[in-house]
TrEMBL record:
It comes from Sinorhizobium saheli. InterPro entries: RmlC-like_jellyroll, RmlC_Cupin_sf, UGlyAH_Cupin_dom. It comes from the Bacteria. Residues 41-110 form the (S)-ureidoglycine aminohydrolase cupin domain. CDD domains: cupin_TM1112-like. Coiled coil: none annotated. This is Cupin. Signal peptide: none annotated. Pfam families: Cupin_3 (PF05899).
Length: 114
């Protein structure tokens, strides 16, 4: 086994999903997720994409992500909206509660640690 991981979408099938109905605020967003790494101990890495919409998010894990394309707005409960576009990166820490709004279909690379 190699100790390197290249983010090549050809190496994984996309999983299709959507926000849970009780978290959906607006739109009809559809997710595509290419989970490229699932390591023991709860580490995940891959690529995620969503069509426009807005939903509630709650994090019990750490997530680092880097926006590849599109535009989104992430807003922490009681905080300011953060506008994100291609080239932007962010870490969401355990305990984060807020909203994710995809304004323009957004694709990101992610690493999640449970």
């Amino acid at each position: 086994m190699s100790h390197m991981l290249q983010f090549a979408l050809t190496s994984a099938e996309a999983e299709v999903g959507a926000p849970a109905a009780d978290r959906l605020i607006s739109g009809t967003p559809e997710f595509r997720t290419w989970n490229l790494e699932e390591a023991p101990g709860g580490l995940y890495a891959g690529v995620w994409e969503s069509t426009p919409g807005k939903w509630l998010i709650v994090y019990d894990e750490w997530e680092y992500f880097h926006i590849l394309t599109g535009r989104s707005i992430v807003t922490e409960e009681g905080g300011e909206a953060v506008h994100l576009g291609a080239g932007d990166s962010m870490v969401l820490r355990p305990g984060f509660k807020g909203t994710w709004e995809v304004v323009e279909t957004t694709r990101k690379e992610y690493v999640i640690r449970v």
